[in-house]
Amino acid sequence: MLTYSSGVSSEDVYHAIADPTRRRILDLLARSERPVRDIAAPFEMSRPAVSQHLRILREAGLVSERRVGRQRIYRLRAEPLREVEEWVRGYRRFWADRMRALGEYLDQQQEDQGKSQPGAPGLWDPCAWLTQPEQKGEDR
Asked: Which residue intervals define the domain HTH arsR-type in the entry (predicted)?
């Protein structure tokens, strides 16, 4: 089991981000820190259920909490996500290389069949989605 420099295990982080509700909570907290009531507002579940999700995120090191009076204010801690992203980046390169090779193969097939003009770029860039930066607000 891998333990991140933040002291949490990789299993805890992956378990925490596996749930769509917890990912939505992280998206909310990426914008700003919030009290539980504001985090719970967009969800069709009880506040205690949201608190359970927050507990899992806190135990995974993905959020921190502080008390202000009777409220608990939650904040995103992105360090474990950076380490997950580094792990995923290796697979992005893996697939980019394979998709690029597939694109080159398909371009060669077109040339061999006489369907493309000499000097024209390939019609399909299979790894464009891997090499272009993500746009904010777009679905993945």
From this structure: 2-96
Distance CA 118, CA 51 (A): 62
| 90, 52 Cβ separation under 8 angstroms | no
Please give, one letter per residue, the 3-state secondary structure of 116-127.
CCCCCCCCCCCC
Question: Would you place residue 110 in the very low, low, confident or very high pLDDT band (cuts 50, 70, 90)?
Answer: confident
Q: What is d(CA 27, CA 61) in angstroms, rounded to the nearest whole number?
A: 15
Distance CA 14, CA 12 (A): 6
Record the pTM. Answer: 0.65
DSSP 5: T
Residue 116 pLDDT greater than 90, yes or no: no
- What is the per-residue pLDDT across 3-28, written as a single tens digit (0 to 9) for each? 555 567 788 999 999 999 999 999 99
User: Distance between CA 58 and CA 91 in Å, rounded?
Assistant: 27
Residues 39 and 25: beta-carbon distance below 8 Å: yes
